[in-house]
From TrEMBL:
InterPro entries: DsrEFH-like, Sulphur_relay_DsrE/F-like. It comes from Sulfurovum indicum. Gene3D superfamilies: DsrEFH-like. The lineage of its organism: Bacteria, Pseudomonadati, Campylobacterota, Epsilonproteobacteria, Campylobacterales. SUPFAM superfamilies: DsrEFH-like. This is DsrE family protein. It holds the Pfam family DsrE.
Amino acid sequence: MNKLLIVWSSGELEVARKMVLLYGSVILPRGYWDEAHIMIWGPSAKLLAENEALCETVKKVQKSGVTFSCCIVCSDDYGVTEKLASLGIEMTHTGERLTDALQSDWKVITF
């Protein structure tokens, strides 16, 4: 099974729009991967919470089957935990998920 973990840490809007979420929106429908997860970590949490267009895009990506989680330490620091959780994003300690992915058969890319 081909599994991809995208670690999204960039706070740059164009990275979010033109890489993370654009690619994320097509990877399962086009059969590029069997399973995909986007991990929101650091400045990307603040960017997402403050941008309604990105929130709408995340909802569309979720409908394609891609799952999302967010570093709860980061989201708490930025004061955006409630907002991101309301999008159906799993709030968690991301270090454990990242470590598990790196030590297993997941492919990991970071933006």
